[in-house]
Amino acid sequence: MNERRDSQRIPVEMNAVLNYQAQIMACTIRDISLNGALIGDLPMEVPFFNAPVELGLTLNAGGESKQIRIPAKIRRVTEKGAGLSFGDVAMETYFSLVNLVYNA
């Protein structure tokens, strides 16, 4: 299978939430890049392929906790979890994501 990612995935284990319509699902981020993430530990009713979702996570930087929300789409669903691709984010969120990926 050909790799289609534009940026390197970094293995992590972070608690997060996946927001889909009026549902909030607790999940675990298994790997992350600047363009997307693999999430696991989802309930059985994962949103459908190409569904717009929002990934919410808390980052610790400089002794402070910061909550970020990243718009995304479901791109793949397997028994291991769901693959997300990130949408456009605000500049501050992007820099938080860069810090997370390059300091993991």
What does this structure look like?
- The chain contains one helix and six strands.
- With 104 residues, it is mostly beta strands.
- It is globular, with a radius of gyration of 13 Å.
- The mean pLDDT is 86.
- A six-stranded antiparallel beta barrel has the order 1-2-3-6-5-4.
- The longest helix has 13 residues, at 91-103.
- The protein has one helix at 91-103; strands at residues 10-20, 23-32, 36-40, 52-61, 64-78, 81-86.
Quote the beta fraction: over 45%
Shape by Cα distribution? globular
Structural class: mainly beta
Strand order across the biggest sheet?
Answer: 1-2-3-6-5-4
Largest sheet: 6 strands, antiparallel, barrel
Radius of gyration: 13 Å
Percentage of helical residues?
10-25%
Mean pLDDT: 86
Count of beta strands? 6
Ends distance = 26 Å
Residue stretches low in confidence (pLDDT < 50, at least 5 long) are none
Order of helices and strands: EEEEEEH
Helical region count? Answer: 1
Describe what is shown at a glance:
The chain is mainly beta and 104 residues long.
What are its keywords?
104 residues, mainly beta, six-stranded antiparallel beta barrel
